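Human: I would love a firmer grasp of how sequence relates to backbone shape in proteins. Could you go through the record with me and say what the backbone is doing? Here is the record:
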Amino acid sequence: MHELVLHRFLKDVRLEPTDVDGLLVSPAGMATGTGADIFVHERLTDALGIRPRFSETVNVGGATYTIMLTRAALAIGAGLADAVLCVGAGKFPKVGKGGGDAMARMISHPDFEYPYGSFIPALYALAATRHMGERGTPREGLAAVAVSSREWALRHPDALMREAGPLTVDEVLNSRPIASPFNLLDCSIPCEGGAAFLVARGERAREITDQPAYLLGFGEYHDHGNISQASDFATMGAGVSARAAFDMAEMSPRDVKLAELYDAFTINPILLLEETGLVPPGKGGHFFLDGRGAPDGDLPVNTYGGLLSFGHTGDASGMSMLIEGARQVMGQAQDRQQEADIALVHTYGGMMADHSTILLGRTP
């Protein structure tokens, strides 16, 4: 699948092998539990006909691609490369046929979590219940996240749920129960897919496009391995990476005009909005109930439909929000285009363990 992604990318961005001297790739097969190809960067080096000075296979779960971006930027800044091609492709496992168990085994402690029946939706549900209890987020606030995401998906030609039409809060609340407080429509949509992006020095980027997306700031934080070891079950450490990104960019949350947030379940955008400082603690659910993240809202969130309505691509799941953030800044978002010169993208890996925040802008 990586080759298919690259084929489509190179149709849109004309590059010669000599134009690329860095390559970062995600491993294939992680989310499906079928065994990871950890040398995929070597295979793609041959397929592309390049001999990069800087090349790795990178895995940080859902945070892989924003961290790829930061690694590429650091390598360019250190003189290790001038243009780094970043590639990811993935497939979500069939949850009802053992795939969900494989994922639970992969992220759960083998002695103290997995033997007691850990399951991905249930683990997120525990985090959601804790967050709701501490912050007072109403159940309807979670449902409003799904409604907002669907509104954006209706504007994206590739969104899986576009043809399903709009949602209402009541429809989300009345959908099939999964793990309290989640119902079916609180959960992301399994699919497969991928994408690629190029990180290059400013002068090279301006040769390729009239409007690059400039990396203004970034931060990351690694809070825990297994969910039982989280330092704070209501926040998961997400705010630490955001503060680092704002400090690097010499900005504050008030400067952000658009946010793309990893949304495996409806609690995630609420939690991440609050932890990145875009809304006060306890106000994330009301933010979505008031329509502030939807089209015509004052702070658009997940403008492509998110994992909830665009699709959750397994190993490549953290790629879609990064690509959308870049497209918005570059003015390439078509019917979804917003007048936003600063975009925040936040992704995480594992059970909300590895956090990465980036700030993209139209001017360096």
About this structure: The chain has a mean pLDDT of 91.
